[in-house]
């Protein structure tokens, strides 16, 4: 059997497996006797808002190019003009009364689910940035020869990894946030950053220790100081090895960001709960929320894969 035939066989097997899964899901949905109402959801992602312009006075409409004027019928010679008015619904010479519609436009706006998605993206982005900084610094302290920094790093890592994220969010918001007057978004970002930073620190430590000690000795023999050797020789190599687990940790952070909804941040999860309360369509809403999270995590995974390929190409 040729390689092409083997690939065709396994791809066909995958299609059959996915088809069986789809059939099973369909059968389960029929069995629970649930009425699907997907038509309710689009307005919670995007919706169209109509804006109307009304006549401030009664009178006759006069249109000259993009300029619309209303000659008042009450006061001789007085006119009200509008420049570049979109969506005009009257014609030249029409008579309008005060308060009647003379123009109507529609504006597409983001619905609650899309706003929640942007909030999740905002919180996740800044949490990842601060978590990387905190994790790298703690990871370096973890492998340093200084007992104070090393034991402090171990204490931080064990304390954070040994307590639930939900509890840490409450502590940051209700205790630390009260002391330093932090708003809920800042407290949420801080909690996620500190939590993820502990895991990144261990990833960085493992990456550094996976590099042969001869690399450091060779760099020092060339006259580099310890910080120079670490920054220019060890860390670049460790970064390549730690990129896959780092990506996994970042993906976990995006999903863990759903917990900030407990401190009244309207992220994607909280927006989903609010939409469920409005539509009474829990399955449709949560499937949509899951798909939006999947888009975020898949996008991050794709970017990491591109970075891996680019770094692999540079090594050739």
UniProtKB/TrEMBL annotation:
* Main location, first listed in the record: membrane
The record's annotation in InterPro entries points to: AA_ABC_transptr_permease_3TM, ArtM/GltK/GlnP/TcyL/YhdX-like, MetI-like, MetI-like_sf
For this record, the Gene Ontology CC terms, alphabetical, are: ATP-binding cassette (ABC) transporter complex
Q: Which parts pass through the membrane? A: 7-28, 121-141, 153-176, 182-201, 222-239, 285-307
How the protein sits in the membrane? Multi-pass membrane protein
The family annotation for this protein states: Belongs to the binding-protein-dependent transport system permease family. HisMQ subfamily.
Sorted keywords for this record are: Amino-acid transport, Cell membrane, Membrane, Transmembrane, Transmembrane helix, Transport
Supply the Gene3D superfamilies for this chain.
MetI-like (1.10.3720.10)
Start and end of every ABC transmembrane type-1 domain? 117-304
Quote the function comment for this protein. Part of the binding-protein-dependent transport system for glutamine; probably responsible for the translocation of the substrate across the membrane.
Recorded GO MF terms: transmembrane transporter activity
Gene Ontology annotations of biological process type: amino acid transport
Protein name in the entry:
Putative glutamine transport system permease protein GlnP
- Write out the annotated subcellular location: Cell inner membrane; Cell membrane
Q: Which PANTHER family would you find in this protein's record?
A: GLUTAMINE TRANSPORT SYSTEM PERMEASE PROTEIN GLNP (PTHR30614:SF20), MEMBRANE COMPONENT OF AMINO ACID ABC TRANSPORTER (PTHR30614)
Pfam families (alphabetical): BPD_transp_1
């Amino acid at each position: 059997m040729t390689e092409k035939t083997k690939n065709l066989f396994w791809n066909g097997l995958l299609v059959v497996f996915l088809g069986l899964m789809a059939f099973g899901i369909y059968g389960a949905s029929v069995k629970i006797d649930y009425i699907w109402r997907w038509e309710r959801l689009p307005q919670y992602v995007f919706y169209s808002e109509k804006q109307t312009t009304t006549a401030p006075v009664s009178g006759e409409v006069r249109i000259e190019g993009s300029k619309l004027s209303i000659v008042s019928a009450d006061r001789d010679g007085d006119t009200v003009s509008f420049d570049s008015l979109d969506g005009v619904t009257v014609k030249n010479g029409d008579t309008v009364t005060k308060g009647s519609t003379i123009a109507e436009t529609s504006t597409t706006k983001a619905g609650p689910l899309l706003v929640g998605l942007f909030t999740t993206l905002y919180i996740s982005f800044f949490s990842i940035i601060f978590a990387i900084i905190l994790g790298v610094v703690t990871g370096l302290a973890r492998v340093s020869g200084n007992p104070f920094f090393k034991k402090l790093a171990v204490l931080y890592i064990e304390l954070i990894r040994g307590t639930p994220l939900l509890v840490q969010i409450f502590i940051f918001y209700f205790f630390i946030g009260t002391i330093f007057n932090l708003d809920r978004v800042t407290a949420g970002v801080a909690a996620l950053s500190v939590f993820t930073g502990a895991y990144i620190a261990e990833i960085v430590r493992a990456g550094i220790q996976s590099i042969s000690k001869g690399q450091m000795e060779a760099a020092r023999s060339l006259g580099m100081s310890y910080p120079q050797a670490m920054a220019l020789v060890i860390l670049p190599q460790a970064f390549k090895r730690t990129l896959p687990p780092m990506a996994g940790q970042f993906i976990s952070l995006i999903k863990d960001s759903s917990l900030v909804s407990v401190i009244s941040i309207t992220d994607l999860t909280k927006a989903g709960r609010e939409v469920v309360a409005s539509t009474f369509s829990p399955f449709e809403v949560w499937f949509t929320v899951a798909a939006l999270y999947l888009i975020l995590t898949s996008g991050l995974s794709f970017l990491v894969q591109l970075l891996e390929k680019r770094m692999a190409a540079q090594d050739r």
